[in-house]
Write a structure and sequence with these properties.
Number of strands: 15
Largest sheet: 6 strands, antiparallel
Radius of gyration: 47 Å
Helix content: 55-70%
Shape: elongated
Oligomer: single chain
Strand content: 15-25%
């Protein structure tokens, strides 16, 4: 609920600070004192469009700030968390500023926010009756939600919404997979051709490098054989070969090492060189003997390399990419087979969800229809007490061509306050006073289920008095057991039922009108009620009458 309101440089308000309480709060005062200006400031606080015209003359900007206690509003606290404005100690601070040059700004818990965010939060906190802009029950969504709570259909409505969300998700999944399958099927023949071309080649990683080396060797057999034989002769096979000369040198070095043992290590090195030369020469001889020109094999290699080259041009710069392309194509074709099987399963799931959604929607519609009749009857029963004795209240449930997340019907609260006229939407009620009393009747019935904590009734006393005023006061007091209620009124019957009465006064300060508000108690409240009764607030008779009226509140 709203626990503190501060208004500065707003219209005729200079600087106003109010501490508010639960229950019925009544604002009274002379006509023109500025009672409705306070309602206007509250409307700005909870999201109304800002206009520079509301800035007090001579001021740079107008400010409205409100502190709300959210301790009993976990859903609003979660909404704040989702928006990134967590409540500290269960409190919410909303602030609006309007500059004289037209710029306006908003804050939530000290952080900059948009007016739309402030409005979304305000709609969960304050309902203003007397002007259409901020009355939650004028919106079809709010009417539907209230009817569902009243009728005991909230759980069924959530189930319908959940099933619809699941159905929507499955349909999207089916559409996506059908599109994917269609795409794959359109390409399947070409994909199979590509895969067969890659698979039939039976390529191995590194194969192209090995084949190119073999082809180069076969292309140069004669040169390789001649060179290898010459090296064989020079190293090992010919007269005066290197190995023979090293053997002779080794013998001389062995003789010298006998004279000086220090040369023994060098003898070992030369011995190793001799064996290396001998081994290399023998291997080169064997290599030359094994070489054979094979034109058939060379042609086979060239043909294979040509095939590999074509595959690399088509499917990748190297064999690794060719094989990777083959794996990807195989996966796509496997996906086509799996997706085709999945489609049947998804369609079956959708059919089951459609049947469940249809059944739940019908059940929700039945509960709503029964609840609507009960709510209609309860509201109409209260109309005479509201001075709306000829009024008709109807809840129209219009079937939708295509049921949605909220079920199969549209909810419209309709009313007719004039005999002979068909009921129409609540927003078509022209009189602010009549609309406020219709809303009071609704709020009286819905007091236990309506979650908006603060209700403001402006113009509710328009055109009523006497017994009806007493009954309206009783209903407001009853609603105030469940909500924080503000009433702007000229009726003493309403003021007398207040848990807190606030007097709105207008004075002249330094040549400018200035509105102030103060809490009335004791004799001051008696005098104000006496004034509202139309008597002289200073006369004993008027004050006695006021005391008698206030006695109703204890």
């Amino acid at each position: 609920m709203l626990i503190e309101l501060r208004v500065r440089d707003y219209a005729v308000i200079d600087d106003l600070s109010l501490e508010l309480r639960h229950g019925l709060n009544v604002l009274s005062g002379e006509t023109g004192a500025g009672k409705s200006i306070i309602v206007g400031a509250l409307s700005l606080l909870v999201g109304e469009r800002a206009s520079s015209q509301i800035v007090r003359k001579g001021a740079e900007k107008a400010l409205v700030e409100g502190t709300f206690d959210l301790s009993n509003l976990p859903q609003v606290q979660r909404q704040l968390e989702d928006l990134g404005f967590p409540a500290e100690e269960g409190l919410l601070l909303l602030r609006r500023e309007v500059a004289a040059e037209g710029r306006n700004r908003a804050w939530v818990n000290g952080s900059p926010a948009t007016a739309s965010v402030v409005g979304a939060l305000g709609a969960r906190l304050v309902d203003i009756h007397g002007q259409h802009e901020h009355q939650s029950l004028l919106a079809r969504k709010a009417q539907r939600e209230i009817l569902d709570i009243y009728a005991g259909a909230a759980e069924t409505a959530r189930s319908v919404a959940d099933t619809f969300a699941d159905l929507k998700e499955k349909r999207a999944e089916l559409d996506e997979k059908e599109a994917r399958v269609a795409d794959l099927e359109a390409r399947a023949e070409f994909l199979r051709f590509q895969l067969s071309e890659i698979d039939e080649a039976k390529i191995q990683l590194g194969e192209d490098g090995a084949l190119e080396a073999e082809a180069k060797r076969l292309d140069h057999v004669e040169e390789l054989a001649k060179g290898a034989r010459g090296l064989h002769e020079s190293l090992y096979g010919g007269d005066d070969s290197l190995s023979d000369r090293v053997a002779s040198l080794r013998g001389l070095l062995e003789h010298l090492s006998k004279l000086d043992p220090a040369l023994g290590e060098t003898v070992s090195t030369l011995e190793e060189a001799y064996h290396l030369l001998t081994d290399s020469g023998q291997k080169l001889g064997d290599y030359a003997s094994g070489l054979e020109y094979d034109p058939v094999r060379l042609e086979e290699i060239r043909s294979r390399l040509d095939r590999i080259s074509r595959l690399k041009r088509k499917y990748g710069p190297d064999l690794e990419e060719v094989l990777s392309t083959g794996a990807r194509i195989r996966a796509e074709l496997d996906e086509l087979d799996e997706a085709s099987l999945d489609l049947g399963g998804i369609r079956k799931e959708i059919l089951g969800l459609e049947e469940r959604f249809e059944g739940e929607s019908k059940e929700l519609g039945r509960i709503r229809a029964e609840g609507a009749k009960r709510l209609e009857a309860e509201v109409v029963t209260l109309f005479p007490d509201m001075g709306l004795g000829k009024g008709i209240f109807r809840i129209k449930l219009t079937p939708l061509e295509e049921p949605g997340s909220f079920g199969g019907e549209q909810t419209d609260f309709q009313v007719s306050l004039n005999p002979g006229f068909d009921p129409g939407p609540l927003s078509q009620i022209a009189s602010g006073g009549e609309l406020s009393r219709v809303m009071l009747a609704l709020k009286s019935v819905l007091a236990g289920v309506d979650e908006i904590p603060s209700l403001i009734f402006d113009e509710i006393d328009a055109g009523i008095g006497g017994e009806i005023a007493l009954k309206v006061a009783e209903k407001l007091h009853a609603v105030a057991h469940h909500h924080q209620v503000f009433v702007i009124t000229h009726l003493p019957q309403l003021a007398a039922r207040a848990d807190q009465q606030l007097l709105v006064e207008k004075d002249e300060v330094e040549g400018m009108a200035s509105t102030s508000v103060r809490v009335l108690a004791g004799e001051e409240r008696i005098r104000e009620v006496a004034r509202m009764l139309g008597g002289d607030p200073e006369s004993q008779a008027s004050r006695d009458h006021a005391r008698e009226l206030l006695g109703f509140t204890g």
